[in-house]
Design brief:
By secondary structure, this protein is mainly beta. The chain has five domains: 8-72, no CATH class; 82-172, Immunoglobulins (Immunoglobulin-like, Sandwich), CATH 2.60.40.10; 179-254, Immunoglobulins (Immunoglobulin-like), CATH 2.60.40; 261-337, Immunoglobulin-like (Sandwich); 345-423, Immunoglobulin-like (Sandwich), CATH 2.60.40. The protein has no helices and 38 strands. It has strands spanning 8-11, 18-22, 28-33, 36-41, 52-59, 67-72, 82-84, 89-90, 94-100, 110-115, 125-126, 132-135, 141-149, 161-168, 171-172, 179-181, 185-187, 191-196, 205-211, 217-218, 223-226, 232-241, 250-257, 261-263, 268-271, 275-277, 281-283, 288-292, 306-308, 314-321, 327-337, 345-346, 369-373, 379-384, 393-394, 397-398, 402-409, 417-423. β3 and β4 (36-41) form a beta hairpin. It is rod-shaped.
Length: 425
Amino acid sequence: MNTAINNITYNIGGGASGVTITGLPPGVIYTVTGNTLTISGTPNSTAGGPAFAYSIITTGNSCITAAAAGTIDVNPYPVPNFAVDKPSYCIPNAIVSFINGSTMPDGSGMTYLWNFGETLSPNNTSTSVNPSHWYSGTGPFDVTLTVSSLAILNGGAVGCTHDTIIQVNTIHPQPKADFTYNKPSVCIGDNVTITDNTDGKDGIVNQWHWDMGDGAIRTTNPVTYTYFDTITYNITMYSINSHGCNSDTITKTFTVYPYPHVNAGPDRFVLEGGSIQLETITFANDAQYNWTPNLYLSDNHVARPRVIDPKTDMTYRLTVTGRGGCTTSDDVFVKLLKFPVIPNTFTPNGDAINDTWRIDFLNTYPNNRVQVFTRTGKLVFESRGYNTPWDGTIKGKPLPFDTYYYIIEPGNGRDPITGYVTIIK
């Protein structure tokens, strides 16, 4: 079909001057030159076989009419056709399978030659019936299928050949995964919000797969999560866009830090004009210390500063900051023990004025002891913790006007104080 036949020639004689031929395929003609008949041309029939049977009858001879017959085989072209197996594909796994739908009108066999349109690929061609091809790019790619029949043609050539081209333009690029944290690290018990930042390429990211690094899986975006151990986690994520294309897989680390352990120490007493060191206990990595208020302290950025010559009671707060900015605070109270102010007289006469021996600041010493004696050494008053001042009596009976000897033991490191107090009536 569409291939010129080899010329067919006959000799005519017996006085014949022409011929009548019937049954030639369309496109094939004949000529008579002298006594030579030539059949030639290119068949243009679309039907193909079976063979065209023709007959020849001579003309111009009145005595004898000669006849001859023959056949011309016209082989059909194959009808190439193919489709792809899916509506779209994704890099890097863009494996396109081709479904061969070619037909041969006469039902005979065919051979195939595929050109996948990816000229740089070492596997750009195939002779399989239904091949597959891995595409490294997005294209588009013009895929050519050339189909040949098995017919033997003039001159021993084999096959009528026809081709078709289909463009593969549904290969999508791979999304590029990325994500961000709303904070660089957290302290134990705090949460972190992780937000997808994938470049979806020619699609919209609409699916997520998060491996949180502790066995948990999440499939939403963003993800707010709380970790319960103080380690560094490997968080892994891949996403899928609206074309069904998986992104690459990305892993980033995230660290959860412990809170410092802070004990500012026991409450302390400090003598007026004296100093004490705070008994702090802390555990923290790369600890930073801050005491507030920064009053009467030797250094407010060390773990155990000294309180030096405070002028009043103080509550100090220690804030310790460890790795990751994790902070913990604790308070300590420092009681100022002023020197007791001891009167040397009082007048227990019931006029509500100076009726008791009032010793200022002594009650700030929690373990103080007061003893009062007569001139002869008789104990007339004793108190531990001077919460109720002495009213000048012994067992409820007033003592006479006189001068009495006292011993005051404040405690808390202050030496005993001795002296005399006079009861005036």
